[in-house]
Amino acid sequence: MNKNEIIDKLKEKNIRAVARLLTLIENEEKEAENILKEIWNFTGKSYIIGITGPPGAGKSTIVDLLSKMAIEKGHKVGVLAVDPTSPFSGGAVLGDRLRMTSSQETGIFIRSVASRGHLGGLAATTRFMINAIEMLDNDLTIVETVGAGQGDVEIVQIADTTIVVEVPGLGDEVQAQKAGILEIGDILVVNKCDRPGSDRLARELKMMLSLGEKKDWMPPIVGTTATNGDGFDFLWKEIKNHKKYLGTDRKAEMRLKRINYELENQVSQKLFTKKMVQIGTNEISKMSKKILERKIDPLTAVEEIIRE
Amino acid sequence: MNKNEIIDKLKEKNIRAVARLLTLIENEEKEAENILKEIWNFTGKSYIIGITGPPGAGKSTIVDLLSKMAIEKGHKVGVLAVDPTSPFSGGAVLGDRLRMTSSQETGIFIRSVASRGHLGGLAATTRFMINAIEMLDNDLTIVETVGAGQGDVEIVQIADTTIVVEVPGLGDEVQAQKAGILEIGDILVVNKCDRPGSDRLARELKMMLSLGEKKDWMPPIVGTTATNGDGFDFLWKEIKNHKKYLGTDRKAEMRLKRINYELENQVSQKLFTKKMVQIGTNEISKMSKKILERKIDPLTAVEEIIRE
């Protein structure tokens, strides 16, 4: 398929064209940019739910249940699972998840996202992938990411409602990462509630929240057992509550702030790249060496590079 | 004092001129830049020890003891305590710490560091403050920062040897931040070793380290009781070990990498600022709004801003 064929097929909500575009984005092909530009005003209409948490927390089972539930309630759902840490394609995980693609109502896509993409970083790339999926005309997009610290926080800045999944018994080193990840959660899920330690985990999370700053929206803690569906009605209710809390205004304001932040990043990145092309990419290294050797001070170095 | 007077006095290792320059840097005066440019090749000669940890961990007592110890061993010591979170000047903390300034051998300076300085962010500003202090011809600079998460990690990227201080009994929320902060420590100190829970904390830290990636330098864990000086001989030994481990080559390599990283940041920041001056500062907001309203796509938006 060439560019125009892909665009035509995308407008027909063709799932294979979406998969094709996702691959182009994943591989950072220039063609992806050209397509994204032309489909931009068809996108941005879905409500985005982000799901994150440590490996083994049961995120994908939650995503599967949640999307089935949403479909039953009349939503059209797209699912994107991204892995910012390891590039993979196909294999066991993908095969396992592809079950659902057969369903007419939904599309599930699993993609790796490069950390410093041609398209401008993790968040931007993921956002473009969501835009690609939105060509299916889904009103709900569920984005699943592995909770891997920094990158993860960035990636979740995309969702309208962010769900952080925790499970009991993952050991201290995981516990230790909780503080940071809690800050980004609009809803906290304690999954595998049939396991010992889940009550204690819920209490701990509650305590951590109470120690944090007071906010208009205080994240509810929802206990789930993904294997039998326990707690999912409550989870769905809380998603709806948060969506209602956001309303049109808060959602628009939030999205605008993120667009603004990202635009600033993109512009400075591109300006830097352009400058590097102009003066030669190793000019910075050469200048750094001169700074270290005290042959030039860093302030003058910056000025000289800018001026060149 | 005007610019040239300050520079002259700095060359005479005048402590008041150093204090003056620090204030200029703190207040982000243009004059600071002009002075820093001219003293650059007199700076960079001290070995930098960074000390960080949560509030209440006893960092300042450790810094005091460590600097006295270093002076006794024949070093000339400068101390910089920076607070990236709250701008303060004078007051109880400063008064309390000024005791040591009377000593001829050392200078202690407590400064707040603005998070997005004219001089280019937290790390850059702190580095310039260290350069100012280095005019005292000290061979050792101890930089103390409050462990406040992100900003803190950035600020510690300045030190040759980074010491992370932890104490028992600060509660779960502090524990939870440990994982991130451990990564930056070359030496881990468990302070207040006379308190219950210190053994357990040391064991926990050891476990966390063993779970992390294997490195050439594995951070030793040192127990101290700052109030009576216990463990400080061992701490001093470990600092010397780490300094020896770094040697001239690793230290230069590390500093070069940081200079390079920072130079890239500075250049893109300045290019962005220059662009904003050129096209008007609210061009980004206007463009963001158009992106949100789907009137332009983000890729074209970036191109248009760059082209303008």
Mean pLDDT of chain A: 82
Assembly state (oligomeric) = homodimer
Give me the count of strands of chain A: 7
* Greatest interface by residues involved: A-B, 58 and 58 residues
Distance between the termini of chain A: 43 Å
In the CATH scheme, what's the topology name of the domain at 42-246 in chain A? Rossmann fold
CATH superfamily of the domain at 42-246 in chain A: P-loop containing nucleotide triphosphate hydrolases
Strand order of the largest sheet of chain A: 3-2-4-1-5-6-7
| Beta-strand residue percentage of chain A | 5-15%
Shape descriptor of chain A reads globular
As a whole number of angstroms, the C-alpha radius of gyration of chain A is 22 Å
CATH class assignment of the domain at 42-246 in chain A = Alpha Beta
Low-pLDDT segments of chain A? 86-105
Helix content of chain A: 40-55%
The biggest beta sheet of chain A is recorded as: 7 strands, parallel
Second rung of CATH, namely the architecture of the domain at 42-246 in chain A? 3-Layer(aba) Sandwich
Topology of chain A as a string of helices (H) and strands (E)? HHHEHEHEHEHEHHEHEHHH
Number of helices of chain A: 13
